[in-house]
Amino acid sequence: MSASEPESPPSTVPDASSPASMIQHSIAETLLEHNKNPVYCSGTWKVASDDIVLFYGEGESSRRLALQGATDAQLEHLANSCDKATFGVNQQDVLDETYRKAGKLDADHFAWNFQAFGLVNHIKKVLFALDSKPREIRAELYKLNVYGPGSFFKAHKDTPRGEDMFGSLVVVLPTPHEGGELYLRHGGKEWVYDSASELANLREGDGPGIGYVALYSDVEHEVASVKSGYRITITYNLYFASEQNAPSAKPASPPSIEPVAALLGDLLAQPEFLPKGGLLGFGLLHEYPFPRRQGEVMPIAPLEAVLKGSDRVIMNAVRQLGLDAALYIVYKASGHEYSFGKKPEVISQQLIPWDAMGEVENLDEVLVGNYGGIVTKSRHRGHATEEWYWKKVRKEEHPITWVTPKTKNNSFKDAYLAYGNQAEIGHVYGTMALVAKIGGPDDRFDLAILEKTDEDVDAEWAAFIGDQPAPKRKQKKRRTKQ
Ligand SMILES: O=C(O)CCC(=O)C(=O)O
Ligand SMILES: [Fe+2]
Asked: In terms of C-beta density within 10 A (0-12 exposed, 13-18 middle, 19 or more buried), how is residue 283 classed?
């Protein structure tokens, strides 16, 4: 039996030029466009010469280094005072100068006068530009790095130190250098921040300044080889501040409709959009650190508090509209029991330790039966050209209409022991997404996904094989919002 995708049932997808599809496109564009939802921001920042004074060393050999106009000999002394920089591999610090060649001082071995508060506030405004209620953030001094000629740091992502850490801030000090550009990559795009030329331009202008780049933790970055001079950076870890640590209490702002919420509201107002209700999906664009406790099922809902960039913007929008929405993992299984049908796709709000589950017979049934799973692609799809299977598919399937596609950014793969008379390992793939349950045009905000009756399915089958037009299905209320 062929496992190819069967013919689709009557389509509910509007054509590309319909108002619904144009609004859907605008939402995706707003969320995906780098300029509206940047994954990093960079530039130069004016400082007073007193700010860029560095203290380092211990006891008799401690030093005060004014960076404005520092001599080569002074910078060389700083470089020679550094330890060799290591980097993390599988939770261990590794020294490998073919991967990272630079000097470093830990935060307890240096100090400088610069107060990052103003810069951090600026970064918050730029990185969270579309976020109408951005969380407070704080910067924690991390390290000083010195890159002399021939120093570099190959492509890596910064290890998040804690679930509240969302990014890093790299401050580049105004010491003349060439090369050492910082390459940044995310979602298949690449950008470059050339601190050497930005700082050189600044030197010709008035007053001292520093270079900076703030990036989300899941942005890959790489420091190109320094050609001449010293490139000195001070890095900070960026955290979402807890209420007590927040630098200032935020005045209550009057409620205003966010642009993305407004677009989403317009989309839901289109009667041809999901005329029978259904699931609306948004692939998350960022990765999130998540504690995995051995063998424990974990709800992923708490991640809502640490969403970044466009992920937070869309979450704010669905919350503002009062939609029934949550973070889900989209699970897809592969294993011997699926070799004849289609790989099922089931969403659940639980992170499941598949490797600790014992033998798993039908992953989709386990998810639906025990973990509030909703089948979004039926494993019977592979046989769905036969009436009986087709009905089964229609009955159990609640397909997702994706506004922004699932991404590989936050996907993971787990192994499990597939049920059978011989031990076999299957694989589960998970991807995080935000999924909203939408009612039909008259009940957008009141309905959970619709239940289908046998009559609905029979009528849809008849319409599918061309007997008669699909009847309008009466919606059943399952849940009413107060
Ligand atoms: O020094 C820089 O420009 C970047 C340093 C860095 O990527 C790191 O410390 O993880
Ligand atoms: Fe880094």
From this structure: buried
pLDDT in tens, 47-78: 998 999 999 988 888 999 999 889 999 999 99
Which of 106, 223, 230, 236 has most ligand 1 atoms within 8 Å of its beta carbon, as the pocket-test mutant?
223
My answer on whether 215 and 331 are in the same domain is: no
Q: Which residues pair with 101 in a beta bridge?
A: 152
Structural domains in the chain (count): 2
233 lines ligand 1 (CB under 6 A): yes
Q: Are 159 and 218 in contact (CB under 8 A)?
A: no
Q: Which atom of ligand 1 is nearest to the CA of 85?
A: 9
Which of helix, strand or coil describes residue 165?
strand
Q: Which amino acid is at 241?
A: A
- Nearest atom (ligand 1) to Cα of 180: 3
What pLDDT sits at residue 424?
73
User: Can you tell me which residue has the tokens 């022991």?
Assistant: 417
How many Å apart are CA 94 and CA 92, to the nearest integer? 6
CATH of the domain at 177: 2.60.120
| Greatest CA separation for the chain | 94
Same domain flag for 88 and 224: yes
Burial class (CB in 10 A: 0-12, 13-18, 19+), 103: buried
Residues 317 and 238 reside in one and the same domain = no
Domain check: are 156 and 55 in the same one? yes
Average pLDDT over residues 400-405: 94
Angle, CA 222 vertex, CA 216 and CA 223 arms, to 5° = 120
Nearest residue to 333 via CA among 310, 364, 302, 369: 364
What is the structure's pLDDT at 61?
Answer: 82
Strands 177-179, 226-229: pairing is: antiparallel
How close is the Cα of 85 to the center of ligand 1, in Å?
10
How far, in Å, from the CA of 71 to the mean position of ligand 1?
24
In a domain, 386, yes or no: yes
How far apart CA 249 and CA 246 sit, in angstroms, is 7
Q: Is 153 in the pocket of ligand 1 (CB under 6 A)?
A: yes
| Ion ligand 2 residue ranges (Cβ < 5 Å) | 158
Domain of residue 396 covers 270-464
